[in-house]
Structure formats: structure tokens, C-alpha cells
Task: inverse folding
């Protein structure tokens, strides 16, 4: 477990960042009055997300591997961070949906239907806790592994 303490730390940091990001989105009105802009602005979370992966892999390289790290070692570290984030996804999504922004699903359903983008039934099937936990879990795995693979290319040192 000690070999993975840096990955666990950075997985927790990433999760904390996501929670803070969601608080920011809510305070900016992106889960309510400005929900029409949510789909555009929520993608900006990639900037802090990639920054955290970059910092995490640099931390692993410098403080575990003594300044040298192969792509495979970096990717493995990133994959472990991704696993930590994915395992925390159900709790994270519950905190977002029940505590941080409990009206988001209702607001998203109302906006989707009133704007003619979807039907009531389709909106209800998409905007719910179960759906978002599943999407967040698999999305975090896919995006985390892609991020780890790319960032490991830049952080590696021979």
C-alpha cells in the first residue's frame, strides 16, 4: 500500500477538485438559471483535471522513482489514480446530486424538454442519480487512462 500512497493522495486531490468544481458550477448558475450554458462550460474542468494528472505523475517521478520514470511506470501510476477516482465516483456523484446541487436533475430535465432537445421520458431516463453514477464511473476510467497515457509521455525521464 505504501507503494501507492502518492496515487491515493492524488486520487483524493482529484476528487476534491471535482467537488469544488461542481460547487463553482452551481454558484455560477450553471445548474439552474444558466443551465443552457452548462454543456459548454463544464468541459473547462479538463484544465484542472489534466493539471492534477501532470502534477501527480511528476510527483511520482521525483519522489518515488528518484527523478527517472518510464512511460509504463507513469501510465501505471496514472491508472492507479484513475482507479481511486473511479472507486470514489458513487460517493462523489451522491454528494454532487444530493448535497451540492440537489435541483440539477429537475432543472436539466425541465430545460431539455422545454428547449425541445428531448422528450420528458428520455430526459428522466438520462438525468438521474443511477445514470450519472454509471456515466461518471466509466467516463472517469476512459478519460483517466487517456490522460495518464498522454501525460506519461511528457513526464517520463530516462
Result:
Amino acid at each position: 500500500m505504501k507503494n501507492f500512497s502518492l496515487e491515493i493522495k492524488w486520487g483524493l486531490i482529484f476528487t476534491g477538485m471535482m467537488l469544488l468544481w461542481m460547487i463553482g458550477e452551481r454558484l455560477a448558475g450553471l445548474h439552474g438559471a444558466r443551465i443552457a450554458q452548462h454543456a459548454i462550460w463544464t468541459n473547462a474542468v479538463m484544465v484542472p483535471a489534466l493539471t492534477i494528472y501532470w502534477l501527480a505523475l511528476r510527483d511520482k517521478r521525483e519522489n518515488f522513482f528518484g527523478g527517472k520514470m518510464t512511460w509504463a511506470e507513469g501510465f501505471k501510476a496514472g491508472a492507479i489514480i484513475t482507479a481511486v477516482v473511479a472507486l470514489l465516483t458513487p460517493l462523489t456523484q451522491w454528494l454532487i446530486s444530493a448535497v451540492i446541487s440537489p435541483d440539477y436533475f429537475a432543472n436539466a430535465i425541465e430545460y431539455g424538454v422545454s428547449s425541445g432537445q428531448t422528450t420528458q421520458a428520455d430526459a428522466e431516463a438520462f438525468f438521474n442519480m443511477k445514470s450519472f453514477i454509471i456515466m461518471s464511473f466509466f467516463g472517469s476510467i476512459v478519460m483517466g487512462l487517456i490522460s495518464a497515457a498522454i501525460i506519461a509521455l511528457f513526464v517520463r525521464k530516462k
Helices lie at 5-27, 38-41, 46-63, 71-100, 104-114, 120-126, 129-155. Residues 71-100 form the longest helix (30 residues). The two ends are 26 Å apart (CA to CA). The chain has a mean pLDDT of 96.
